[in-house]
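Example record

One chain of 184 residues, shown exactly as stored in the release files.
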Amino acid sequence: MKDLFGNTEESMRALSWKQPYAGLMLPPFNKIETRTWNTKYRGLVLICASQKAYGIDSVLNISGEKQLCRIINMASELSKGYSKDGHAIAVGRLVNCRPMKKEDEDKCFVEYREPWIVTSAKTGKQRLVKLYCHEYENVRAIEPIPFKGAQGWSEVCPGDFIQCDICHGKGGYHVCTNNSPQKL
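Predicted structure tokens for this chain:
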């Protein structure tokens, strides 16, 4: 037996994406992920498709009209890599996080926005929000693995994912231990 990533030494975190953005992380798209938060984490990331996909209005709000049109035009290609929601679908290495620039739009599938102020409905406090590019390398699809993610980072043990000829005659990878995420 071997683990999915060739070792058990390196830690890994899981992060969830709603569709269509989870599918856009896969080759040949290899999008640059955008989030409204910065991270100092660098390393392996288990890319998970959330239980629920975004509706068209949400995708329009996030991506803008031009990028939404690009996503719609790629729908048939996207459906080839589109996995069941609620599954881990890929692994990649997060190598950089930086503020988004206007010229990143096409690679991010998101329209650039200048930083904006958001007011908390609960506290009334204001905070400045801006988009960050999370850059990944070596993103590769995996056999979809049921995975219940959480908002934000979850800790994952790469050794939980093993190649098992007994369970998956073709040597498929799966989780042989409890993969409940631990909130960081």
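Notes: The domain at 12-158 is CATH 2.30.130.30 (Archaeosine Trna-guanine Transglycosylase; Chain: A, domain 4).
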